[in-house]
Protein 1
Amino acid sequence: MKYYPVFIDIKNKNCLVVGGGSVGLRKAVTLEKCGAKVKVVSQKFSSEFDKLQTTAIDFLQKDYENDDIRKDVFFVFAATGNAGLNLRIKKRASKFGILCNIADSLDKSDFILPSIVDRGDLVLAVSTSGTSPAMAKKIRQDLEHCFGNEYAVFLTLMGNIRRKLLSAEHAPDDHKKIFHSLINRGVLSLIKKNDTKKIDLILYEILGENYLYQNLIASNNAF
């Protein structure tokens, strides 16, 4: 099977997870983190779900019913330990044209989920098309060593610089040169070393006054 790689905006989209075990937990956490409106249906929930009670995730402790899947659901995740129930959920989702992922049943799923490295705005996705999840995990672990948290900070810096420039009606065509300069001057490695003085010096040389590192990474609010 050849899968089409894509990143999808699911902010405020209704997503349903059926299953209260560890697999359902992982699905719910990732969906909620990406801004989805998540509902989890299960007769029983593992103790791991206790830490999610303060989130916006909606928990329904009951048996799954066909009416749990409606036209306004964007994604469905069948994560129960019952293969027959998972297929029933998939059939119901298909009736409405809703994409469904079935845990541990790639051949019956509409889509599969990659192994990911999450560094803020940097998300690296690894897939072996279902042939070897263990290999995908190994590659993910290798990437985690190569791409540390400094990448998340760096992209926050770049994004806030872009917003500040746009708010000052700076010509967008000139942005490319600025960002290439920031990359080539080694700001990323300086972030890893926490050398804020050198970063501020580079920002001043490239952008001028009022571009201080700590101020730029402190907030994602528009300037």
Note: The chain has three domains: 1-113, 114-148, 150-218.
Protein 2
Amino acid sequence: MKPFKEADAPIEHFLSDDECVRLVNACNGSFRDLVRAALLTGCRYGELTRLRYEDFHPEGGTVTVQFSKAGKPRHVGLTDEGRALFDRLTTGRARRDRIFVRDDGNAWGASHQQRPIEAASAQARIEPPATFHILRHTYASSLARQGVPMAVIAAQLGHADTRMTERHYAHLAPSYVADTVRAALPPLGIVDKSNVAPLRRGSL
């Protein structure tokens, strides 16, 4: 069996910081918190909708994903912003209560997210429309661009090892690779210096 063409190609599409803000502002009610959590944890839609009060650990600033695609639990570290969100959502809740429920108090279903995120994307002028898959990639891409080690990103996303993480996100941290090469290789003195200043792309 052969993989589909370009199936392993790096995922290029993710939201900018401005698009993230516009998308969140375009969401309504309890769905807004669900989108916020996706952007702050990198968790899948199904993982978020299964979270319960007891899965949030305020002392350590983590949430535990009990049932993940990899088949084993993982602990997702939260930023201060993420911790504040989960603090608010779990205040006064019973341990077995779901953290994320719909405005009517019922659980989110398998496809309940599709229409509201498409509507929010249209209102926020995001094209192509965002999906929770894209929100997950946005989270991981942001970490990669900040130079977070691939092993840490893999752990946050629940990847079994770093191979998939590197395949999709390593290209977003080229400065780390370039800086490492520059620091490791000494100058050989084999290139003559020039007084000619090259024109930069886009300067014409």
Note: The chain has one domain: 17-173.
Protein 3
Amino acid sequence: MPEPVFLITGASSGIGAATARRAAEAGYRVVLAARRLEQLEELAQELGGSQRALAVRCDVTEWDDQQALAGTALDAFGRIDVVFVNAGFGAPRGFLESTPEHWKSMVLTNVYGAALTIRATLPALKDSRGHLLLTSSVAGRRVLSGSLYAATKWAVTAMGEAVRQEVNDTGVRVTLIEPGMVDTPFFNERPDGALDPDDIARAVVYAVAQPPHVDVNEILVRPTAQRH
């Protein structure tokens, strides 16, 4: 059987890059997608070069890019076994903060982009009876004052359950990953007591490593000292 393939959006840094390293360590060939190609290519070289890791520039809000990402993965490796829908970013809290342009980009990336990744890769996941994971957030389970970002993550949480129900009889597993504070480019300065991206990557690999009849639907991971 060919070695399995693990596709990750938002793979150029943070949780995505850490998960790519863990997936490669676990024996997966990896497909790395993000808008920043230079960083992706450096990571792909670290993880074994073109025979083990592909770097694919992808704007997740563009359907043509998403189709090309799935096609490139299948052309190169012949299958897709795990998809980690991880691309996303935040905005300052407050409905008078940030800019409408930033809001639009965030909503399109976090919600529409996630849906496009599912649409582009679901046929391959059905073929492999694979695993779909989505990065939601603690903010996708509780309302945060003034947070449009939280609203996008509530949408991801709902999307994860909606697709789980849709694929229930196909063998495809679906997992929501819900991090608390993590030291990623999301924050300008490291929050006190924050998790490392690798802490979340280990949770992702845990879910994927379960037997096929076990679907870990949600993993909520907070720092020990995070109150909310």
Note: Strands lie at 5-9, 29-34, 53-57, 82-85, 131-135, 173-179, 218-221.
Protein 4
Amino acid sequence: METLHTHYGAIPHVGVVERYADGGVMSCTPGGEVLLQTACGALTPQFTTDDLRRRTVQAISFHPTGNLRALPLERPTCVATPAGEIMAELVTFHPDGSLCRVFPLNGKLSGMWTQEDEGRLAQPVRALTPLGSIEKRLIGLYFNPAGKLLSLTLWPGETLDVPTPQGTLAARVGVAFRPDGTLRSLEPAKPQPVATQAGRVMAYDLDAIGICGDANSLEFSADGTVTRVRTNLSRVVAEGTEGDRLVFEPELRESLCGDGDREITPLQMEFDAAGARLRTKINGDWTALPAARWRLRAEPFVAQFATAFQRLSCSC
């Protein structure tokens, strides 16, 4: 077994060592137990496997600087973070070596190991956040190089009450912050009314995917106004100064199941001092509506109401 020498200590490795063009190490697979000295304490990389959750040894990866990028851990380990000590199975780092993300669990989902299996291992995590101390099941936490918490990602099914400029709102999936601790965005856990330039909109994205809490469908500016929102339950009527009229509302698309059913897609809105942008398709073109030219009015959208809350079996 060969040994690789790094900033963090010598690593016995197996297999091919991936390298950058200049010869620097990109990744390697540990072949035995070793203790690496990192910015958040002495940590042991994963070097063994099991039959279900971790059937292969995940590689350690490095930035071109030579600093650690991602470090899968051999066992749940208490990691020192700016949010407090957290039991983790995976940690990642910024190029300067500072802590980037912490993941309490790191099991690999497969036909043999499902999200429900992994969820049974998820324990509440106590963390100090801009919202105060919380104790929730978390997928991960994200810090900037200065150690400020930028986002937290909630475990599926977990919710968190968040004080916002629009009152306390229930969040799922994730909550994101600015470096100064002010709220940047959250994913509404249920339809909740928020005030926008178009009037009161029912903020809710049925298709929100709980992979990462860095960017969410309800976003606030630094002064607390809504700058982005998705909705399955509101439409917007735009009336122009020349008498023209446009209507934007959630659309129905063919179900991903391919069985002839249809499902609703959210109306997406963005606002700034110049006006608004709206689109009705997830990756469609935006329609810009300058404030000097258009007056917007939000209204309830009730067509296909039942569809809006029907989760099809093959949907995300």
Note: Helices lie at 115-119, 305-308.
